[in-house]
Task: inverse folding
């Protein structure tokens, strides 16, 4: 078995071989060498590839291709959606709503906007990591212009009721943004049925290349947002810069394959995740983070009582896993790794937040890898607990 | 230690297979305990030393802490076994930290081990002064 066992698919995924091959062919192909914004034949040829990829991405979320804007990833998409919308609509209102458990790529946008005299309401999640639509509704005001709630939490895997939140935002007149980096390819997405106005997407989370993403922007409802930077007018001026043909081609193909594999991927991931939870959860004092049922197929987050976090993660070094998220993993050797704000919002103590492991499975994960991981996890947790003075393992 | 490795080879060795893990078994009449730290602060350590005729006949540790802490505890107990009880006071912590390549930002944590060792020595000395 190849070590470490890779169980960090929520951080990033290995690129699908077909996607890698298509991208390599694109890089060495004359038909793709042109600037897709050039009017000559070489440019038009590249442009055709870009537009085909745009349609592939749009198809997965049941959007119109013209509503897809290429970006460098979900982080940029979040920034464009949130900051761009807030700035463009500042005349209509300066109140914004989000949840307290969003990805840093969302939360930092709102914190930035607060420094620019916007007012933000952070709706708390309950102890199971669920954001109640009633709480979102209660936060809405006449001057609310934008609400942002992620579809699937990257740390806990909890699925938010974006359809209901979207409906309420639509009724209120506020625009609704969803970070779908963890849900695309794992949950059915329909931007119109769910009343979603802006949706952030990432290629690297579903077997596509890193460094490329997209923002769905409902042009018929929004018109436009303020761009983050300025240049040659590409992507209707919303995101200038030459579109990287090979990158977007890779993303498009990855999204098409994700649509084809969706049912099988979900079935496979669910079975492995449940097997993993059955194995690690059998140890006393291993606590599930997030709602037991409203969980995406591929993420399992557990907090382990009675062991110190840095030691736990080093002891599990034969498994490539995250602490809370890739963005929150303590730097090895650091004396002061910050506990995850998401876990703290769920009511976990700092100690438990540091002793949290996020497993995330994927298309290539095997049963043998899961069984090995269970064995290592149990062995190391029990070993570390034996070292602890007056061990006080809380039984779940 | 290469820039990619988070811990030195010595830390890895003692973390993966720590020796002298407590509690000490057997009779407890000559066992003296020292403890320091708080779990809430991320480090709690306890040393137990069995002392006969001013010699550390046996010593063990228990620790809730990072890999540097566990490795340091194991290395300390390995070196103190068989030494005079005065050595509980004489562990050269800066030298130990250099040996284990402990990052400077962890200095405060590792010094807590010194508090626990001193606490153990005091337990022994208090009984000695009380004439037991």
Result:
């Amino acid at each position: 078995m190849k070590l470490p066992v890779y169980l960090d698919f929520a951080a990033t995924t290995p690129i699908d071989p077909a996607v890698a091959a298509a991208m390599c062919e694109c890089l060495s192909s004359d038909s793709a060498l042109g600037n897709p914004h050039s009017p000559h034949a070489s440019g038009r040829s590249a442009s055709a590839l870009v537009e085909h990829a745009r349609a592939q991405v749009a198809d997965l979320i049941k959007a119109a291709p013209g509503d897809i804007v290429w970006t460098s990833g979900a982080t940029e998409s979040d920034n464009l959606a949130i900051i761009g919308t807030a700035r463009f609509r500042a005349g209509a209102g300066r109140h914004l709503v989000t949840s307290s458990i969003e990805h840093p790529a969302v939360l930092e946008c709102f914190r930035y906007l607060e420094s620019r005299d916007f007012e933000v309401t952070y709706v708390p999640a309950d102890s199971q990591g669920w954001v109640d639509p009633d709480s979102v509704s209660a936060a809405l005001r006449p001057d609310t212009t934008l609400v942002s709630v992620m579809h699937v939490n990257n740390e806990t895997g909890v699925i938010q009721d974006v359809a209901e939140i979207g409906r309420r935002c639509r009724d209120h007149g506020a625009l609704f943004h969803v970070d779908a980096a963890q849900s695309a390819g794992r949950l059915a997405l329909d931007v119109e049925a769910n009343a979603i106005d802006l949706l952030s997407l990432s290629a690297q989370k579903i077997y596509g290349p890193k460094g490329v993403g997209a923002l769905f922007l409902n042009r018929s409802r929004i018109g436009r947002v303020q761009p983050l930077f300025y240049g040659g007018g590409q992507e209707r001026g919303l995101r200038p810069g030459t579109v990287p043909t090979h990158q977007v081609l890779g993303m498009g193909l990855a999204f098409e394959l994700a649509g084809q594999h969706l049912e099988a991927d979900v079935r496979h991931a669910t079975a492995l995740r449940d097997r993993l939870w059955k194995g690690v959860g059998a140890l006393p004092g291993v606590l599930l983070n997030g709602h037991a049922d409203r969980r995406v197929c591929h993420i399992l987050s557990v907090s382990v009582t009675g062991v110190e976090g840095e030691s736990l993660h080093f002891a599990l070094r034969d498994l490539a896993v995250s602490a809370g998220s890739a963005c929150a993993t303590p730097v090895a050797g650091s004396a002061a790794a910050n506990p995850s704000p998401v876990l703290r919002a769920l009511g976990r103590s700092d100690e438990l937040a540091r002793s949290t492991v996020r497993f995330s499975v994927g298309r290539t994960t095997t049963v043998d890898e899961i069984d090995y991981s269970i064995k290592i996890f149990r062995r190391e947790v029990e070993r570390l607990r034996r070292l602890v003075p007056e061990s006080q393992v809380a039984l779940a | 230690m290469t820039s990619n490795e988070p811990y030195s080879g010595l830390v890895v060795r003692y973390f993966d297979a720590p020796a002298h893990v407590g509690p000490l078994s057997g009779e407890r009449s000559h066992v003296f305990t020292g403890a320091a730290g708080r779990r809430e602060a991320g480090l709690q350590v306890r040393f137990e030393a069995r002392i006969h005729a001013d010699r550390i006949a046996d010593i063990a540790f228990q620790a809730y802490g990072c890999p540097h802490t566990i490795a340091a505890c194991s290395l300390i107990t390995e070196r103190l076994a068989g030494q005079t009880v005065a050595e509980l006071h004489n562990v050269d912590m800066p030298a130990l930290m250099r040996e284990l390549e402990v990052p400077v930002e962890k200095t405060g944590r590792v010094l807590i081990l010194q508090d626990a060792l001193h606490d153990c020595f005091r337990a022994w000395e208090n009984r000695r002064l009380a004439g037991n």
Q: What stands out?
A: The interface with chain A takes residues 6-7, 15, 18, 21-22, 35, 39-40, 42-46, 62-70, 103, 105-106, 108-109 of chain B (CB under 8 Å). Helices of chain B lie at 9-16, 67-80, 93-100, 107-129. The longest strand of chain B covers residues 43-52. Chain B has four helices and three strands.
